């Protein structure tokens, strides 16, 4: 039963009229047509049908505050919307919510050269920020496949990671300050960009990864980095997963890697069948890694080649290739970056989990055994950010099985997968957030006492439970 759909349309209309007449919204900032409700009411997940009541597009922090205050007054739930590239239904409005889209808050503001920091609005596209940093001969290192459409506010909401975490960390590491509107409608300026600030609790960190359940981020002050120099890419093939870990240890012992990505033979099979990328080398192996590292000095390249040759002599690497220029590096990256798009035609059921790097070999072995023994007709595709312990488990739908039946079976698989995650003290969501799809499994990574504390924190910032209700956990 969609409880929020029972809210009178009269109340929604009253709220909209207040925005238009009292809070300087114009007609272009509010949409209620069916096509818009469908488009802005969902993200990349397919598990929940969108059912928003209206879409609003604020242009300032004050306009965001106005919609929050009115939502509290009329007991209307708000769902924040960024680039809608999420994979956990965190931005899905399935119960008559009003969607607050940051599409019109997409400006890059003041740049602080001495601090290597820039202020941006929440609707700025990740790639837009990356291009701005490049124009200042700097670098924004948080990067992933959806960088061309994801928004900074959404990245902050899920503490987005991506392909460079092994060197640069998660989104959290780059947020120096936030402006937020809490669920109560208060405007807070958190940390104000400072490196050192020992004045009590750092509330900024609470909002990072909160998926819009505490309030709405409107601006962020973001640290930038020096540009990497002379990046080189290697793709290596191995027949044992233990050899993947041996190669990681060998390179990390002597070189600072900017990326260490992993994908399996199933991923390569699908990529080659799709025809968008070329075979990395003649041999087909069970596992592949993509390594990226800077080589500003010749001795670093010599060291990398020596490590590679040693890995070959040890029998860890069957074959390998290294980029000779920027174009070739880009082509090799496609082997990793095109996997999600390529397997999308198989309606994959995705799990985004993490464990300590030390546990990864046993973890993968146990999950493979679970799926192959209980569901022999399911094909599994592994890839992920192995250098930081983040694995993407993709179970591919058999051609002769309906989507509903397949998802139902995968829900059963989840129990065994997450019990294994819990066994190793891991996370059921490494970088995609909890949303609604992972919400039933929060207890596998957080104790009941922890979850109680999370609920109490939400009540402080959002006492009426109007902010993204039903995401991460339910309020008792």
Automatic annotation (TrEMBL):
EC annotation from Swiss-Prot or TrEMBL = 1.1.99.39
The Gene Ontology biological process terms listed for this entry are: respiratory electron transport chain
Q: Which PANTHER family match?
A: D-2-HYDROXYGLUTARATE DEHYDROGENASE, MITOCHONDRIAL
Which top EC class applies here? Answer: oxidoreductase
Organism the protein comes from = Psychrobacter fozii
Obligatory cofactor(s): FAD
The protein's matches in SUPFAM superfamilies, at most eight in alphabetical order, are given as: FAD-binding/transporter-associated domain-like, FAD-linked oxidases, C-terminal domain
Q: Return the similarity comment.
A: Belongs to the FAD-binding oxidoreductase/transferase type 4 family.
Residues of the signal sequence? none
Q: Which reaction does it catalyse?
A: (R)-2-hydroxyglutarate + A = 2-oxoglutarate + AH2
UniProt domain FAD-binding PCMH-type: residue ranges: 48-227
Keywords per UniProt: FAD, Flavoprotein, Metal-binding, Oxidoreductase, Zinc
Superkingdom of source? Bacteria
Q: Which GO terms describe its molecular function?
A: (R)-2-hydroxyglutarate dehydrogenase activity; FAD binding; metal ion binding
Q: What is this protein called?
A: D-2-hydroxyglutarate dehydrogenase
Q: Can you state the subunit structure given in the record?
A: Homodimer.
């Amino acid at each position: 039963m969609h409880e929020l759909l029972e809210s009178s349309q009269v109340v929604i209309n009253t709220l909209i009229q207040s925005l238009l007449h009292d809070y300087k919204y114009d007609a272009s900032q509010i949409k209620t047509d069916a096509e818009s409700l469908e488009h802005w009411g969902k993200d990349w997940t397919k598990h929940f049908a969108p059912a928003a009541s209206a879409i609003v597009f604020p242009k300032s922090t004050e306009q965001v505050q106005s919609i929050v205050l009115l939502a509290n007054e009329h007991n209307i739930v708000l769902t924040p919307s960024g680039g809608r590239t999420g994979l956990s239904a965190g931005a899905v409005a399935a119960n008559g919510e009003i969607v607050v889209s940051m599409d019109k808050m997409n400006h890059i503001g003041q740049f602080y050269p001495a601090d290597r920091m820039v202020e941006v609005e929440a609707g700025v596209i990740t790639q837009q920020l990356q291009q701005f940093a490049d124009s200042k001969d700097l670098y924004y290192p948080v990067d992933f496949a959806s960088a061309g459409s994801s928004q900074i506010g959404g990245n902050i909401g899920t503490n987005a990671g991506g392909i460079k975490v092994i060197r640069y960390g998660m989104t959290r590491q780059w947020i120096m300050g936030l402006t937020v509107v809490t669920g109560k409608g208060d405007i807070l300026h958190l940390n104000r960009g400072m490196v050192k600030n020992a004045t009590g609790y750092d509330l900024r960190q609470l909002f990072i990864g909160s998926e819009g359940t505490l309030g709405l981020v409107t601006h962020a002050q973001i640290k930038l980095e020096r540009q990497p120099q002379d990046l080189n890419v290697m793709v290596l093939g191995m027949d044992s997963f233990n050899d993947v870990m041996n190669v990681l240890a060998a390179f990390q012992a002597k070189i600072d890697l900017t990326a260490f990505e992993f994908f399996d033979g199933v991923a390569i099979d699908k990529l080659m069948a799709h025809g968008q990328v070329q075979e990395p080398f003649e041999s087909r192996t069970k596992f592949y890694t993509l390594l990226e590292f800077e080589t500003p000095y010749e001795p670093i390249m010599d060291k990398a080649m020596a490590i590679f040759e040693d890995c070959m002599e040890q029998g860890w690497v069957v074959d390998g290739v290294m980029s000779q220029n920027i174009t070739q590096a880009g082509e090799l990256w496609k082997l990793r970056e095109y996997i999600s798009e390529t397997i999308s035609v198989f309606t994959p059921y995705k799990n985004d989990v993490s464990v300590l790097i030390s546990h990864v070999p046993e973890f993968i072995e146990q999950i493979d055994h679970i799926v192959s023994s209980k569901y022999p007709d399911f094909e599994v595709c592994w890839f992920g950010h192995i250098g930081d312990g983040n694995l993407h488990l993709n179970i591919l739908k058999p051609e002769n099985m309906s989507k509903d039946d397949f998802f139902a079976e995968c829900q059963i698989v989840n129990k065994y997968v997450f019990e294994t995650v819990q066994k190793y003290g891991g996370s059921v969501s490494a970088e995609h957030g909890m949303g609604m799809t992972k919400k039933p499994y929060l207890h596998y990574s957080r104790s009941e006492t922890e979850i109680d504390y999370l609920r109490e924190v939400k009540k402080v910032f959002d006492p009426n439970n109007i902010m993204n209700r039903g995401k991460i956990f339910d309020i008792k």
